[in-house]
Amino acid sequence: MATVLLVDDKENIRTVMGAVIRREGFEVLTAADGREALDRALESPPDLVLSDVRMEGMSGTELFRELRARGVLAPFVFMTAYASVPDAVDAIRDGAVHYLTKPVDYGELLRIIRRAVLRKSGEAQTERSSARSILGSGPAMRKLLARIEAVAGSEATVLIRGENGTGKELAARAIHSRSPRRSGPFVPVHCAALNPNLLESELFGHEAGAFTGALRRKDGYLEAARGGTLFLDEVSEIGPETQVKLLRVLQERAYSRVGGTDLIRADFRLLAATNRNLEDLVAAGTFRSDLYYRLDVVPLSVPPLRDRREDIPELVEHFAGRVAAAEGLDRPSVSADFLDTLGRYAWPGNVRELENLVERLVVLYRPRILESRLLEEEAPDRFGRPDPDARERRETLDALRQSGGNKSAAARILGISRRALYYRMGRLGIADGAEPGNA
Hints:
This protein is α/β, with parallel strands linked by helices. It has four domains: 3-129, 3-Layer(aba) Sandwich (Rossmann fold), CATH 3.40.50.2300; 139-303, Rossmann fold, CATH 3.40.50; 306-383, Orthogonal Bundle (Helicase, Ruva Protein, domain 3); 390-428, Arc Repressor Mutant, subunit A. Helix content is 49%, strand content 13%. The chain contains 20 helices and 14 strands. The chain has helices spanning 11-23, 34-43, 60-69, 85-93, 106-129, 139-152, 168-177, 196-204, 221-224, 240-252, 278-284, 289-295, 312-327, 336-343, 350-365, 372-378, 380-383, 390-402, 407-414, 418-428, and strands spanning 3-7, 27-31, 48-52, 76-80, 98-101, 158-161, 186-190, 228-233, 254-255, 264-265, 268-274, 298-301, 333-334, 369-370. The strands form four sheets. A five-stranded parallel β-sheet has the order 2-1-3-4-5, sandwiched between helices. Strands 7-8-11-6-12 form a five-stranded parallel β-sheet. β1, α1 (11-23) and β2 (27-31) form a beta-alpha-beta unit.
């Protein structure tokens, strides 16, 4: 039975909405604020979190980011008054599933819960049934997968490099799933999402009374990863003091909780990832060189999508099929012109950008066929029809620059007559005399 964690500071909403969700066959846990919800979710991770946005103390968006930082990746749905819609939309961009405006339509709420839980269970089943969680069969991905296979069986620390959205965590999970520690936990820690002042306590844990608010002893991520793998994402964001302590753990394989003196044996394999150039940070003095060398035992690079465009058809088919299944739709076919258009785009957001785009198209348009016209309609800033004269104008200006503005030379570069060049310049709006060195 799937579990829904319902978070709202109004008791009547928790009572009535909780009863509606239970009637659909879900187990419901409730919390009156974000802090209580955080404790409950960390104690027993739910299958879905349904939370109000505006609450005293920890808000819904703060709860969302705190859970993500602590590795609780359950689907998250916001309930919000219109005034706080922008907060929810920002969280949607960061990975939340949906938001509902109050008063909530219970029919829509239940559809969203069923869809999100179905999708989560489907993804979990996919991960259990296939160790290969990274998609792509082109040369760049074959090279990456071969390197993952080579390093997975060892205890070596791996530093995974790559741009945002390339799938660095997937690479880390693939290493873990092939390792001797695969029966142990995989504990992801997103360092940039944690308050730098709290990161040390979150990693190492703390003793009761270690600082204001530390009412009881708490184990950290290092303890949670015992027997398994600790994955530090965006490791470049760790502050100087925590860098020193992490280095000591890697050297001595032991650590103490904040405020404590007892040594705890470190029993985890460390994988780290970064989208920044650590060598530059070392040169700038913001990242310790000795820690860098401890992390960079085995370097691994996840290629950007623009360098593996041959994998786009496979990725599109996978994302479209997964979203269609979650939405209860027929799987759409994919047209050649759709793939051609995607193949010409630079993908600054990498695979994550492609995944979000395909999901949006399937959910909004419910198409039988994914066609390029959908791209032009939904994302004209990225996929609108190009200006047919743009390329010709660029080539003409380039030729004029190369020739120093000499029209005869520019015409020869373009392979046209001087008269044809003047005609083209007039048609394209390139002023005569605008370029230096006119003939």
